[in-house]
Structure formats: structure tokens, C-alpha cells
């Protein structure tokens, strides 16, 4: 018996599925055919698949009969049957006519290769560089994310998928399979979701997402599509669970890597292959589908230097230029670039003697590269055993945006360094905070990050702390880099509840591979003494290396929009 709740819409979905995937050899029909849009379909198999969309599973052909029962049911829904029957005269197969856009899904295949080509063209028109089929070095098992604060929810989703149909071993790759598109700037993934992605396991996974999760698509809409389509793919038997898990990881990847939220578009939402990349109306229409989250600005690059200590101001300028050129190539928008403390030195002169020349050089470089970035550099002056002037400076195309003089000395610097009166003091009439991309940044000079924590200073309304650290020498010769990361960066992040980024020089030593130049506290009231690098959820999504005569630079690029 045919279930009475199979509707015309369910049958149309069955026809689309057959059109895309074909008919199994044993389900073809020799006597009768359903004719729709110039194509012939086996009626009994159509009813079986119609039940998949109506009731969640294919209808066993043994529980209903072909011929009159099936044909009458389909004709009552308005479909035509051809074959040797008194009810319907035999018809010649009509010519296939071009379908109008509003009829998408009844003829147009969602696996149309032209659709993805047009999407790539539209993305390049809007954003510039687009990488198709991009593969991130990103794990596929919950334990790979043990150090992330998303580990508990990912583990819960994974275990739920394992229990759904008792398929325990559906992960068959150690690295996440490729993403459809990666747009390097402003830094987001775009997934083109075909019908097979809308399954019950996928809906179940969505149900465990945190309510405040940042996504570049409507979770509610995707859950509704999962409920409506209820796609099934049993080749291999665990394919639905596997697909749901990999899609989940693509949604969480930006949150862990610091990118903008993943954007998803539905393959049947429009005839993508008919979009015109050179047409303003189509571009505007396509851009409107890109969720607002995908277009937020928010990048910061930290510059870590390994040095012998023998370096000139001209060589430092050349390195700055190379780094800025590379970031200009990789990012289609400006960013904040953080260099170490004392990057430029005035020698025995006051630091302010370099303000004008450094400002002019950086402004010229920003105009040359054409990006509206902000460059943060440290300038030391009156350098003998200690630099009496320790300055952090932020420069944009408009000139000096902010200056911060050190306000909290290291223990051995007390009495040897000229300090700012307090953490709000101006320098040369400039504040130590500046705004960029909708965020407010605070400039700290080296040990200032410890001052924020030790003096219990109130957050003056800043979103990001930038600490320009002078450097670390060999073990036992000064404050260790791990001590600085734990009590300076992590301590400040805990106290002010915002991310802290640091740049530093490692003198005559290599940078520890896991030393964090970006930290975001997520350990509640725990002590910073117990904090470990693996507890840090903030990771760069890109890294570049530069080698010179006496120095090597490591540039890490972070996204801020997931914080």
C-alpha cells in the first residue's frame, strides 16, 4: 500500500534525485513510464523515492504494486503516465525545452560544472584571489582539538554521530578533505552545498552547535532543509555520518584558525551558471548572499625576529618593506602589523629624534603598497646599558596615530628608564590607543603587559592589546619567553578580557616553535601559573618566513573575527 502522505512535492524531489543519480538496474520499468519535462521515469521507483522524502526511507517495492495502484496514485497528483494502458494513450517523447530559472531543480542538475565555475568568477570579482578545492592542514578527530575550547562540543557531536547508526569508524582521513573555495581576504571558506549534504545526521549535529556560534549562513535554514530533503547516501554505509562530521569541522575550522565564519550557499537556490560576473545586478545579487560576517575586517600580523644583534637601521627598513610587500600580496585589505620593541634605535640620542624620519618612511611604504594598514614599531633612545626611552608607535598613511611610552619597568630597569606618568599618559600630545577596522588597540612597551596585571589597571575600553617586546636572550640571561607569555600576555588577556599580541626579538637563539605571539585567555579563574601553551585557543592561519644577512623574521597572520 502506498502511504497517503506522499505529495506532488515529494514526487518532484524524487524525480530530481533520479535525474541526478540515475536508476538502479533492478528498478527500471519496461511497461510504464512517468513522463515529466521530456524525460521518462520508472513509476514504481518514483513512488519508493517519494516515500524517502515523505517518511524518511525508501518504500520497499514488496509492500505496494506497480501498474494501476502506482499509476493511479501518480495521475491523481497530476503526472502523466505512458505505456500500454487504457487510461493513458502512448505518447511520443517530446523535445526537451530550455527551462526557465524559476523551474530550477526539475531539469537543471545541481552537479552542473558551470555553476561552480561561475561562483569562482563571481568571488574573484568581489574579493580577488580565490583558491578552489583548498585543503587545510586540519585534523579530523576530536582529540586533534584537545587544546581548543571547542573540544567538548566537537567530541559530543562526534560521539552522537557514532551512536546514530552504530557506525564507529566513519573517519577515513587524518586531514580534513578539501573545502570548495577559500577566499584569502577577508579570509573565509565558501561551501557549495548540494542536496546530499542535507541529512538527518547533519541536522542532529546542528542541534549541538553552541547557540552563540558565528556562522556565515542561517543554521535554522540549513536545519529546515535537512528536515525537508532528508538525503540518504549509503555508499559506503556510513557516508551520511562522515559527510555531516566533515561539514561540522569546516564550520568550526574558522573559529579555531581565527578566520571569518564559513559561508554556505545552497546549490538549488538559483541557476548559478546563468550569473554574469560582469553584470552589476548579478554581482550585487551574489554579494547579498555572502553573509555580513564574511566581510568583516580584522587581521593582525606579528613579526618575530631572530637576530645576532648586529643590525643597522637601513637593514631594518628593508626588512619592514619586504614584510609589508608580502602582506599586501596575501591580503586584499589592510591590517595591523606589529614589530618588536626597539625595532629602530636612536642610539644615545632621544627617541623623539627618530619620530619624523620613521613616520615618513612608513607612510611612504604604505602609499607604495596601496594598503590602509597600521604599522606598529618600537623606537629606543638614549641607549646605554638600558634604553631610557622605550617607545611604541603606530603609523598609518595619515601619519602617527598613537604613541605609548613605557609605564611599567622591569625590576632591573627601575631608576634607569624614563617612564610615562601612567598607562593613560600622552606622548607628544598623542594617545597610546588607536582605532582600526572597528576595534580599539592599546600600545604597550615591553613590560607594560605585566603592569596591566600587577597594578590591576582597569580596561580603558580597548579591544586588543599590542605589546612590543624588546627581546629574549639565552636561558638564564633575563626574563624567559615562556614567563612572558604566561604572566604578561595571558595575564593581561585574563585581566582585560581581550586578546593580546606580542612581537619580540630572539637574540642568538631560535624561536621556540610553540611560543605564542597571540594569546586569548579562556581558562576562567584559573591561575596563570598553571597556564600552558596548549590552553591557548588563538592560532595564526598563515605564516611567512624572511631571511636576511643577520636576521630572520617569522610573520604570523591572525584573524580577529572569531574572538
Structure description:
By secondary structure, this protein is α/β, with parallel strands linked by helices. It folds into three domains: 8-103, no CATH class; 113-294, no CATH class; 297-559, Carbon-nitrogen hydrolase (Nitrilase/N-carbamoyl-D-aminoacid amidohydrolase). The chain contains 13 helices and 20 strands. Strands 8, 9, 10, 11, 12, 13, 14, 15, 16, 17, 18, 19 and 20 form a 13-stranded mixed sheet that branches. It has a four-stranded mixed sheet with strand order 4-5-6-7. The chain has a three-stranded antiparallel sheet with strand order 2-1-3. Strand 10 (344-345), helix 11 (355-369) and strand 11 form a beta-alpha-beta unit. The longest helix is centred in the middle third of the chain and has 19 residues, at 239-257. It is elongated.
Amino acid at each position: 500500500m502506498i502511504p497517503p502522505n506522499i505529495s506532488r512535492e515529494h514526487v518532484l524531489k524524487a524525480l530530481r534525485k533520479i535525474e541526478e543519480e540515475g536508476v538502479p538496474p533492478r528498478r527500471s520499468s519496461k511497461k510504464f513510464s512517468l513522463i515529466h519535462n521530456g524525460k521518462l521515469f520508472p513509476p514504481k521507483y518514483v513512488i519508493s523515492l517519494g516515500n524517502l522524502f515523505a517518511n524518511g526511507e525508501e518504500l520497499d517495492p514488496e509492500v505496494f504494486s506497480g501498474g494501476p495502484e502506482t499509476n493511479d496514485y501518480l495521475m491523481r497528483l497530476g503526472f502523466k503516465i505512458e505505456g500500454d494502458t487504457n487510461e493513458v494513450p502512448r505518447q511520443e517523447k517530446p523535445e526537451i525545452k530550455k527551462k526557465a530559472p524559476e523551474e530550477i531543480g526539475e531539469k537543471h542538475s545541481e552537479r552542473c560544472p558551470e555553476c561552480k565555475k561561475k561562483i569562482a568568477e563571481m568571488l574573484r570579482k568581489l574579493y580577488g584571489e580565490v583558491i578552489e578545492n583548498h585543503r587545510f592542514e586540519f585534523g579530523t578527530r576530536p582529540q586533534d582539538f584537545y587544546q581548543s575550547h571547542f573540544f567538548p562540543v566537537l567530541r559530543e557531536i562526534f560521539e552522537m554521530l557514532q551512536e546514530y547508526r552504530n557506525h564507529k569508524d566513519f573517519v577515513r582521513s587524518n586531514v580534513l578533505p578539501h573545502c570548495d573555495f577559500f577566499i584569502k581576504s577577508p579570509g573565509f571558506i565558501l561551501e557549495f552545498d548540494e542536496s546530499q549534504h542535507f541529512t538527518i545526521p547533519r541536522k542532529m549535529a546542528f542541534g549541538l552547535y553552541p547557540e552563540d556560534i558565528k556562522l556565515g549562513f542561517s543554521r535554522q535554514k540549513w536545519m529546515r532543509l535537512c528536515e525537508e530533503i532528508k538525503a540518504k547516501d549509503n555508499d559506503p554505509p556510513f557516508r551520511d555520518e562522515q559527510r555531516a562530521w566533515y561539514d561540522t569541522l569546516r564550520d568550526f575550522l574558522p573559529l579555531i584558525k581565527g578566520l571569518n565564519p564559513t559561508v554556505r550557499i545552497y546549490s538549488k537556490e538559483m541557476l548559478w551558471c546563468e550569473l554574469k560576473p560582469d553584470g552589476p545586478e548579478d554581482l550585487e545579487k551574489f554579494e547579498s548572499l555572502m553573509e555580513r560576517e564574511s566581510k568583516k575586517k580584522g587581521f593582525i600580523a606579528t613579526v618575530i625576529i631572530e637576530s645576532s644583534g648586529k643590525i643597522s637601521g637601513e637593514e631594518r627598513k628593508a626588512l619592514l618593506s619586504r614584510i609589508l610587500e608580502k602582506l599586501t600580496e596575501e591580503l586584499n585589505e589592510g591590517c595591523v602589523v606589529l614589530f618588536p620593541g626597539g625595532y629602530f634605535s636612536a642610539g644615545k640620542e632621544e627617541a623623539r629624534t627618530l619620530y619624523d624620519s620613521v613616520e615618513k618612511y612608513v607612510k611612504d611604504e604604505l602609499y607604495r603598497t596601496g594598503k590602509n594598514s597600521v604599522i606598529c614599531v618600537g623606537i629606543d633612545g638614549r641607549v646605554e646599558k638600558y634604553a631610557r626611552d622605550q617607545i611604541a608607535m603606530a603609523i598609518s598613511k595619515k601619519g602617527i596615530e598613537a604613541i605609548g611610552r613605557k609605564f611599567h619597568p622591569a625590576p632591573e630597569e627601575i631608576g634607569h628608564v624614563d617612564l610615562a606618568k601612567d598607562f593613560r599618559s600622552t606622548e607628544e600630545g598623542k594617545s597610546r590607543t588607536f582605532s582600526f577596522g572597528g576595534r580599539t588597540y592599546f600600545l604597550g612597551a615591553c613590560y607594560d603587559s605585566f603592569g596591566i596585571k600587577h597594578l590591576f589597571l582597569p580596561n580603558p575600553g580597548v579591544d586588543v592589546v599590542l605589546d612590543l617586546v624588546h627581546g629574549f636572550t639565552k636561558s638564564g640571561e633575563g626574563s624567559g619567553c615562556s614567563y612572558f607569555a604566561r604572566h604578561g600576555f595571558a595575564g593581561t588577556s585574563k585581566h582585560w578580557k581581550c586578546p593580546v599580541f606580542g612581537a619580540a626579538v630572539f637574540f642568538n637563539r631560535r624561536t621556540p616553535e610553540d611560543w605564542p605571539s597571540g594569546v586569548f585567555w579562556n581558562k576562567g579563574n584559573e591561575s596563570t601559573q598553571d597556564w600552558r601553551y596548549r590552553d591557548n585557543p588563538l592560532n595564526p592561519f598563515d605564516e611567512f618566513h624572511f631571511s636576511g644577512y643577520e636576521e630572520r623574521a617569522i610573520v604570523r597572520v591572525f584573524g580577529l573575527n572569531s574572538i
